[in-house]
């Protein structure tokens, strides 16, 4: 299949491009580089040993995107592009609603006009709000804690309305849990701007000595050791989940959790990261971070049964591959 990958130079998009090409699909990338760098394209091309068509376009620009659809015939679209910082979305709600919702509407509108058969949407576990884990796809969605989360809930709703008038379209809504890790080659990975908010990138910077210590946000949760529990998923496993959805999902809307189904605490992550990479992670316990929940992990029965997909990579793999990516480039030659 010929697949349009929006946001294909970003963290999850770039890894998915590799999996698509390794599974004999062809890919066209659209990205406006708002949160990625053009160098990622050459690293991707090195990895897959072929050139990849790329358009630097903002998806909210319908005219420019129409031209991409006129120049290419797509069998499917994977729509990753979007702004993703929870904290920033609280500060800049309009930017988040505009970027994430308008881009989704423009892409799905053109998908219909140009009769594209398959559409995969990047959603998030955040749409569940604060409910008890394991989280199943059948749960009612609760109000999320941020404008970012609301753009995901609304994006899902828009797609469900489109499906009502276009029943042949195969729509996969994929709710990611906590994507981490990097490609084992060390050529692509994630490098958030500034001081990271998320646990794993923060740990990596502490291990490298760029940050002094990790603040652990609370050790008094009702969890195995008092620290927060999340469902971490290796980005390569996550990328494979998109290929499965694209290849197997038939008409209608199908929603799947993409997680490991297993929770891991902050302290457990620190212990594993130190062990597999032979580094020290100094930390101190501080107050809980506002808005955090104790535990969040997926029920993955549906995706296992219907798509035959499950994670194969471990927390050890995630820690090792993140560190490998970090070590491969110093800050001056950084690609992401
Ligand atoms: P990312 O920021 O690394 O990649 C997103 C890409 O989209 C970037 O390259 C950016 O430049 C591009 N982009 C953003 N707005 C655009 C626009 N208007 N036009 C064209 N390109 C645009 O993010 P990621 O971690 O790869 O996430 C991909 C998707 O998955 C996002 O929709 C995100 O909300 C969702 N998601 C991510 C996580 C996570 O923890 N990484 C968790 C759940 C869901
Ligand atoms: N966390 C932490 N210190 C940090 C960042 C995160 O203790 O500097 C904890 C956080 O409280 C949560 C877990 O690590 O329990 C995962 O946080 P992250 O922000 O990576 O993911 P999210 O909370 O969005 O699922």
UniProtKB/TrEMBL annotation:
Domain NAD-dependent epimerase/dehydratase: 3-259
InterPro entries on file: Epimerase_deHydtase, NAD(P)-bd_dom_sf, UDP_G4E
Pathway it works in: Carbohydrate metabolism; galactose metabolism
Keyword NAD part of the UniProt annotation: yes
GO molecular function: UDP-glucose 4-epimerase activity
Enzyme class: isomerase
Entry EC no(s): 5.1.3.2
Pfam families: Epimerase
Cofactor requirements of the protein: NAD(+)
Family that this chain belongs to: Belongs to the NAD(P)-dependent epimerase/dehydratase family.
PANTHER family named among the record's database cross-references: UDP-GLUCOSE 4-EPIMERASE
Protein name (database record): UDP-glucose 4-epimerase
Annotated organism of origin: Enterococcus eurekensis
């Amino acid at each position: 299949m010929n697949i349009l990958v929006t946001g294909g130079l970003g963290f999850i998009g770039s890894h998915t491009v590799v999996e698509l090409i390794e599974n004999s699909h062809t890919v066209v990338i659209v990205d406006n580089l708002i949160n990625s760098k053009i160098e990622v394209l050459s690293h991707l091309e090195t990895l897959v040993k072929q050139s990849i068509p790329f358009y630097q376009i903002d998806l909210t620009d319908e005219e420019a995107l129409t031209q991409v659809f006129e120049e290419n015939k797509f069998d499917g679209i994977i729509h990753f592009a979007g702004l993703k910082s929870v904290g920033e979305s609280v500060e800049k709600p309009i930017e988040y609603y505009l970027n994430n919702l308008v881009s989704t509407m423009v892409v799905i509108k053109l998908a219909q006009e140009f009769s594209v058969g398959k559409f995969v949407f990047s959603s998030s576990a955040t749409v569940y709000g604060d409910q008890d884990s394991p989280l199943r796809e059948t749960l009612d969605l609760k109000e999320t804690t941020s404008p970012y989360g609301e753009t995901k809930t609304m994006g899902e709703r828009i797609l469900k309305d489109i499906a009502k008038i276009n029943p042949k379209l195969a729509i996969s809504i994929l709710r990611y849990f906590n994507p981490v890790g990097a490609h084992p080659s060390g050529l692509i990975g994630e490098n958030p701007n500034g001081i990271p908010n998320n646990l794993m990138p923060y740990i990596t910077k502490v291990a490298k000595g760029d940050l002094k210590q990790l603040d652990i946000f609370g050790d008094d949760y009702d969890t195995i050791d008092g620290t927060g529990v999340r469902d971490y998923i290796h980005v390569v496993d996550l990328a494979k989940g998109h290929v499965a959805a694209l290849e197997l999902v038939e008409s209608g809307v199908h929603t799947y959790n993409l997680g490991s189904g297993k929770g891991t605490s902050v302290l457990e992550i620190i212990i594993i990261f130190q062990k597999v990479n032979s580094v020290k992670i100094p930390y101190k316990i501080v107050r809980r971070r506002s808005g955090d929940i104790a535990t969040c992990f997926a029920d993955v029965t549906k995706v296992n049964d219907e798509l035959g997909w499950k994670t194969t990579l471990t927390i050890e793999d995630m820690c090792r591959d993140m560190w490998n990516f970090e070590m491969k480039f110093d800050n001056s030659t950084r690609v992401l």
